[in-house]
């Protein structure tokens, strides 16, 4: 009995600290409690994500150079103090390009996830809360979307719209939507059937208020964690499409396109592939760790 | 590895029918199966949970350990099975003597403990549904214990069937092939007892074995335990309910704050409890009539006529949960609805709340349509009939603090009370406001649920098994609170319970339900004195024996 109580409290204390903290009134103790929830790995991941955010908003701060400035004389320079990640076939600084590519890669990942979550939100909520027939129909739609091979879909969109970022975005968004829709549908159903939602109804709360105060927050919080995981996944997908030449086009410093560009010189200049590849891996890993941590916090 | 040679898996005794009698390797009768002297258990970060506990259980004896939650009884159970550290934090166990089946277990390795568990000590947990694998048949589940002990396949089935019979299950051949989902709560508990019995342990430890069961079912399970005891198995029974264990226990050990405060023969401890804690536990057992003068009945507030509700079952069949029931509730009346699980009492309460619409019949509130009213019209009158749920924790939004829960409820009612005043009304300290229900105790959560219901200033309070998940002492406090509130606020109460004694203490009138129908109704004291229906007599008998 006592041991059980203690476990409960241990799980509860940092949670309270996190929830109660208000921006502005964030003392050091509260900040520590907040970070404590994330754990060491979570804090590291948060650091990486913050670094990526800086690179997105203000790439010049980390790499002041021009990502497209060519210097043929310096072509294929190995990593050195002057060029941390070396230079490519046109003598462009790979580090500068990776930093400046963050905005595009991360932006595409976030936008694709946004499209996926947006579509998933509409389908999932309608299926979860709507009448049974609508649920049946939308569940079939989800299954059809699941069945579509995303690469073929991307090829189709590229064929129609031409190669570029937009079709990639839509393709990845559509490919991830059914996953979100399914998670939302089951989550919203279990929340709507919970006894606290019933308790609110029996208090006489209007339906819309019950939705806004109880159903929506308890449904969407778990989704935040899943979507964070999803951004990392989407970056990998978008990079894969770019690698195949379907996404961002050279000379754009998008990571996937850079990996593709370096492929030809893999034996001669390994850093061309390694640097953007590492950036993709690091970002995806950081977002995944963060997503899992958030998921655990949400579950607690 | 260092563990000495154990008696090993026992061969099934040739003296078949009394399957529970341990055969070879049993300590002689005068030697206790469990002997503990000066047991202390402490957890890192928590401190000492048990101090200087002495406990002996002899073959053919049933010892009950009784105490409130937090008294350390669960830790004691876990220690007897060498599982004290299982709760997550590391436990330090010390003892002057700690013998299980004649073997000193103080320095036993994890490996050594595993040979003790199952073959020497069997454990039966409270929650039979969670302890049984839903995907496996009862036979497979129970047989696993034997498979682990390398009992040949041919013997397993026979021994499993014998254990099922010993645990009091009818048609064991059928139960052998069934899955937990196909069994009732009582049968599941018996299946669990069978799985603990199958290896023929000399000591059976039961943690709240009847708490989750209906009164009549619990009485039958206790009868089975008495038979096992008479057949020579030593029983260690752990419960918060003194009355429930009195039926089978030979001796009672009262635990409070990790110490044994009283010990003695059951009859003696019950009739003349010495320690204040024991007296508290004994006094908390619900008994006697509703105190105070008979209620002044006003006009009818809530009534239902010809109420029916049918549910379809997964197999395509139908269950008439409530079948043509009439109910009338007067202002100031406390009406009890009693029955076993599955009798339809909760469904009837939900129909009265119009949490669910009846298939047939109407519910009226103050003479105006209630179940037949439009959604909007009904929502505007919701505050008049409020629910106190069985599981208060589930009824609170997990993100909300107690204060926010109360403020939200207040925003719907016409009450001018503040959250703090509401907490005072249910005797909770104001500091609860900032806490989340998760961090409150079971009794506090139920008080908070009552406070939330009061926030809407209802005329009718529908209490659905409000105390069945609580300790006896906490239960007594909540019942007292409900009684007080009814008097001071002139509330009408619908009180659903499986426990007749609880209903008798709170209610003026009672409905006895069985299979969706009302089999008996009337003033509580009349029904108690002269039960007309055989089923009511059975219900009464189950509690009286306890």
Could you explain the architecture of this structure?
The complex is a heterodimer of chains A (300) and B (546). Chain A has 300 residues and is mainly α. Chain A is 76% helix and 0% strand. Chain A has a single domain, classed as MetI-like fold (Orthogonal Bundle). In chain A, helix 2 packs antiparallel against helix 11. Chain B has 546 residues and is of the alpha/beta class. Among the domains of chain B are: 74 residues, no CATH class; 173 residues, P-loop containing nucleotide triphosphate hydrolases (Rossmann fold), CATH 3.40.50. In chain B, the strands form four sheets. A six-stranded mixed β-sheet of chain B has the order 7-8-9-3-10-11, sandwiched between helices. In chain B, strands 17-18-19-14-20-21 form a six-stranded mixed β-sheet, sandwiched between helices. The longest helix of chain B has 18 residues. The N terminus of chain B is likely disordered. At the A-B interface, helix 1, helix 8 and helix 9 of A face helix 1, helix 13 and helix 14 of B.
Secondary structure: elements and pairs:
The complex is a heterodimer of chains A (about 300) and B (about 550).
Chain A: H1 2-20, H2 28-57, H3 59-62, H4 94-129, H5 132-147, H6 150-161, H7 165-192, H8 195-202, H9 207-243, H10 255-263, H11 271-299
Helix pairs in contact in A: 1-2, 2-4, 2-11, 4-5, 4-7, 4-9, 4-11, 5-7, 6-7, 7-9, 8-9, 9-10, 9-11, 10-11
Chain B: E1 34-43, E2 47-57, E3 62-66, H1 73-80, E4 91-94, E5 97-100, E6 103-104, H2 110-116, E7 121-124, H3 128-131, H4 138-148, H5 153-166, H6 172-177, H7 185-197, E8 203-207, H8 215-230, E9 234-239, H9 242-246, E10 251-256, E11 259-265, H10 266-271, H11 276-284, E12 300-312, E13 318-330, E14 334-338, H12 345-353, E15 360-365, E16 368-369, H13 375-381, E17 385-388, H14 402-412, H15 419-425, H16 442-455, E18 460-464, H17 472-489, E19 492-497, H18 500-506, E20 509-514, E21 517-523, H19 524-529, H20 534-545
Parallel strand pairs in B: 3-9, 3-10, 7-8, 8-9, 14-19, 14-20, 17-18, 18-19
Antiparallel strand pairs in B: 1-2, 1-4, 1-5, 5-6, 10-11, 12-13, 12-15, 15-16, 20-21
